[in-house]
Amino acid sequence: MSEDQYCPKCGVAYEPLQEYCLECGERLPTNRGTVGMLAAAWQRRFAWYPGDWIWPALLFLVIAIVATAVAAATTSGSGTTIVATQPGISVGSGTGGLGQVVSTQTLPAAPQPTVTTGPLPKAPGAPSTSVATNPTIPRAAGLFAWPAKGTSYTDVLESIPFTSGRTIALVRARTAKAAGLPKAGVLVSADYPSLRPGYYVVFSGVFATPATAASALAAAHVRGFPDAYVARVTHP
Prior knowledge:
Layout: H1 34-45, H2 54-77, E1 84-89, E2 98-103, E3 151-161, H3 166-178, E4 184-188, E5 199-207, H4 210-215, H5 217-222, E6 229-234
C-alpha cells in the first residue's frame, strides 16, 4: 500500500482499486495523476464531486473563451485604411532624429479618359505641307477622299509626322481599309483649320456628330488601332 493513499476527507488509508472510503463513505480519487490531485482538492472543499469528466470539460471551456477573446481582438485591431506618408523632422523633446508625418487625406482619383475634338498637337519643327504639293494623298490607291466643304467628324486612327513620311500613312490607311473600317483615307492636316499642321492623318469615316463618330471607335480599337479617337475636321 502506498503511504499517500489516504481518504482526502477523513484520512483513513484505502486500497488502490477502492472507490469509496470505508470509514466515511467519501468517493476516493482513483486517478493518482493530475486529475486525481484535482479531484482530491475538490472533495476536500465540497461534499459533492461530479466525476473526473469535469476537468476536461473545464479545460475545453477555458480554451474556447481564450480563442474567442483572441479572435475578437484581432478583428477589432485590423483595418483597411490607407494613409499617405512622407518623411518629416520630429519636434519637441527627444534626440532630434528624423520622424514620419502621416497624412490621412484622401488620395486623388485617376483622371477619366476624354474624347478630344480639337486640333492635333503640332510636331516640333514639322513643316507645313498642303494638298497642292501632295495631290495624291486623298486619292491614292482607292482611298477615301475627304468631302470638299463643311465640318464633319471622323475617327483618327493615327497621326504620323511628316518626318516619318507619307508612305507609312498610306500603308496604315490601306491596312484600315483591308480590316473593314469604312471610308479609310489620309488627310494633310495643314489643309484643315481644326487640325494642327505637320501630320499625315489616317482616318476612318465621315460623321455628322461626335456621338456617331464615337460609336464607331469600338470597331477601330479591335481592328488594330487601339489609340483611335474622335476629331473635328473643318474644311476652309
